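GH18 domain-containing protein: structure tokens wanted.
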Amino acid sequence: MGKADASNIDFDMEGIMQMKYKEAAGLCNDLRTTYGHDIKCQATCLTGDDDRKTAAVYKDTFDYFAIMIHGGSMSDGWSIPVDDPFSGATWKVINEWLHAGIPASKLILAVTTNGLEAYMVNWLKAIIQKYGMAGMSVWQLKDLKSSISYQCIEDPSTQCGHPSPSTEVDGECCDPDSVTKIGSCKELGQDGCCGGAGGSALCQKV
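Answer:
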């Protein structure tokens, strides 16, 4: 597609593009007319009521809608409680988009690595599978935690939060609220963090 030699295009519906869905849809159609109708167009959307309702108007033009369920981090105005993820603000927004009139197969959950925990990825993957959503996109992928592997993001059957054996946490405190180099003890559990140390105060080799 032109000098960029790209196959598809993503419209980031923020800043000067905020609420410019009509313009983005028009450009998408122009590109398809010029370069072929196999070009796929994605809108990466803010999640407020206006964006959701306007995006639905153009559901037949865009192939995908990536909904940004994060701010500067996964907890910046959002919440996915570890004990009950469905009780947080993030699920409320996802559920609203699932009922916006846009096919679930066109919806992508857009997350950021800042504040992203393994249990969040596992929960989001389950939602994607249950509702037949298009998938997940990750901002700042290079900063992904070691407890979240590429495989656990890409493979629905692989659970995140089980790092390979390592000696990096040897001797570190493993109280429930402590954090080691490979993740939080609350996330990993005593066995994952302390190598089966149970109630021991110090981490062992894992």
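Residues 21-35 form the longest helix (15 residues). Confidence is low (pLDDT under 50) at residues 163-171, 195-206.

Cheers.
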